[in-house]
Amino acid sequence: MKILVIDGQGGGLGRSIVEKVLTQFPEADLTVLGTNAMATSNMMRAGAQKGATGENAICYNCASADVILGPVGIILPNAMLGEISPAISQSVLSSPAQKLLFPVSNVHKLRILGHTEKTWQAYFDEAVSVLENFEKA
Q1: Domain segments of the chain: what residues?
Q2: Which of 11, 45, 74, 136 would you label with 100, given CA atoms 20 to 30 Å apart?
Q3: What does the pLDDT read at residue 108?
Q4: What is this structure's pTM?
């Protein structure tokens, strides 16, 4: 199972996702992709073995991923203060991968109805549960 973690800005959310995924799946084929070098570096420090930075790296890797994890902003053009290009959002959305997106408030004034506020830990646990079921399928 090829897992991508995509994040931007400082990569803090991505780093937390990587830590949780690698705790549960230490042998996972995990690649981190940052919209900038700081985000990539921060996620690599969480234990990822493979990482790349920039629009082309993200677009290229989305095509062959099984699962993509990241903030909901990765599907919104110009999100994250403009770090998410239209090409990045299109690549994530058109990827055949299962997308596990974490709600981040104040993203383009987007509010997802039916969404229940949870702690980040609860979201991480939910993502791991989905990955466990995905792996069994």
Answers
A1: 2-136
A2: 45
A3: 62
A4: 0.91
3-state secondary structure of 133: helix
pLDDT at 118: 86
List of the chain residues with pLDDT < 50: none
List 52's β-bridge partners, or say none: 33
H or E, element range at 131:
helix 120-136
Task: Please give the Cα distance from 112 to 13 (Å, whole number).
Answer: 19
80 — alpha (psi -120 to 50), left (phi > 0) or beta?
left
What local confidence, expressed as pLDDT, does residue 10 receive?
Answer: 94
Classify the phi-psi angles of 74: left when phi > 0, otherwise alpha if psi is within -120 to 50, otherwise beta: alpha
The tens digit of pLDDT for each residue in 44-53 reads 999 999 999 9
Answer whether CATH 3.40.50.1220 is correct for domain 2-136. yes
